[in-house]
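Case study 2.
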Amino acid sequence: MRVLVVITRKAGAVALARLGYRFARAVEHNLVVLCLEGGAAGDEPVRLTPGAEIPEGTSETVAEVCSALTRGPHLDELLENPEERTGRVVPDPEVEVCVVRTPQRLTTVLDQVKASKAEYLIAAKHKAKPKQVPLARKLFHAAPCHTILVRLGEADNVDCRRILVPTAGGPHASVALRLAERLASIEDGEVVALYVGSDAGELAEEVGGRILLGAISEAGLASNSTVVPRVELANDRFEAIQRIAHEDFDLLLLGDSNAGSVRRSLFGTVPEHLLSKEGGLQIAVVRREWKLLHRLRHQLGRWLDLTIPQMARSERIKLYEKLQSGSEWNFDFMALIALSTAIAALGLLQNSSAVVIGAMLVAPLMTPILGAGLALVQGNAPLLRSAGRAIAMGYQVALVIGFVLGNLFPITQLTEQLLARGGPTLLDMGVGFLSGVAAAFCLGRPGLLAALPGVAIAAALVPPIATTGVCLALGERGNAWGAALLFGTNVVAIILGAAMSLYAIGVRGRSGAAGHQRWVRYSFLALMLGAVTLAFPLGSGLISQLSGGVAGRVPSELESRLVERLRDMPGARLVDMVDPRDEKNVIELEVSAPQPLSDALVFDLVNIVRDQMGTEWVVRIETQLKVEIGPAGSP
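Prediction:
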């Protein structure tokens, strides 16, 4: 295994090479210093060994790097014979300087990482031109190995005896702590593991201490005397870390996952007096190696960034504000959910599709469901709780209103609108998922907001709840269960679709602590398991339809005509209509009625089927007698 140091400029080249030498010695790996030079691509990389004769035409930067890495007075002064202090015999790493002339710097470095089997990659952060992404930052996000991004001080001679590691746990911080311990141990130095917490009460320091000890234990350094825990309470983490860094530290090492805004503040815009202080403070941020899943996710993110126009920061802020306010349970939300449910229930009872569509446009449930999708993508627990509460409370209110209206306006037979929402299939899950994708995409594109009403109509949310309440009032538990299943299917599918859509257009989660990421993964896993679980009854319904149910070879107009004819007989209802696959030209009708069907009604039903399907069809009618006994004991 090797440590690969990438040098692109003369400024800081010697300091970076010597720091790389320290890292390689600490982890007991060999060192490869890759010097990238501009111009057209050369035939083959030039490989040099420090201490050997340097060929003519070698650039001044490469010559200085080779000289700095030659074992002799330079490195003796740099390392000051640590074996005499620590009692450890630390082998010197084998060093190779590789000079490559290439215009494709990122590709070249990644190829060298693979070819040299590098475990660590070290690069320096230099000021870049406006609107230009530095190579070091590209490597930090693209390199598969442990990656260390360094901001160097002014001194060429580096020292790593006292290292400050701000941490609160997490995989990146663990790598930073282990690396810092190895660097300090070979020089009889010290690592200060720092936790900065807010002064939130008398137990704040104790809580911070436990978090810090957990982070040290996670790194496998619980009993290591080189690592000294330190807890600081401050309202401003950045100011606290800057203040402590003045205490004669040589290296400030940050773990990327725990750094977050700290890394951006200290590493991106660190005050110059920290870098130019006497002794030359070095600042580095560590990102652990990409696992396969991380690499795939990163590659997906890059492909989406290049393929799909991404939302601007101002657009993301507006989107968050809109979904945050719309996901709160308040009087306005309650009023809209009550009104939309009442409209939907009345439309269902009178079998009016126009009224039901109107209720879909009034319903506010789509917003908190999209808010839940945004919360999962962002890792925003407060927004997820707010959206979940709005969805749960909205469902309960709508269910009660549907139940009340079902009792106030009882009907003898379920309407087509009620029946249509009692038999969901996998196709409904597909509609819900695509509706979530479309709704989130429209919200992220202000110019497409006019399409949202159409999405609201496609993803029916309130009508299934109203159907559940009405059917429970009428005693139709089977249809009520189907409508409730349809609502649950839509919620799960819309959240997943919205999360995917928001991720694609540029809404990404902020890297946080391990626990923070854990609940997001568990939530997505729960949604996926919910979708798989729902797929079984939904798939059964689809198979039933395709194999001979009311949506098989039988035209939908036939069901409407049969239902209309049965209305002439009070209490009669079409329960099921089956087209058996194993019998040619046979249709079976299952009818529920309070008394046997009259001959005239039977002949009319047969004639309707044959008029629709053809005279060669055989019609079987099975009647289920359903008698209701009144309070006085008489039918």
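Residues 556-625 form a domain with the GMP Synthetase; Chain A, domain 3 fold (CATH 3.30.300.90).
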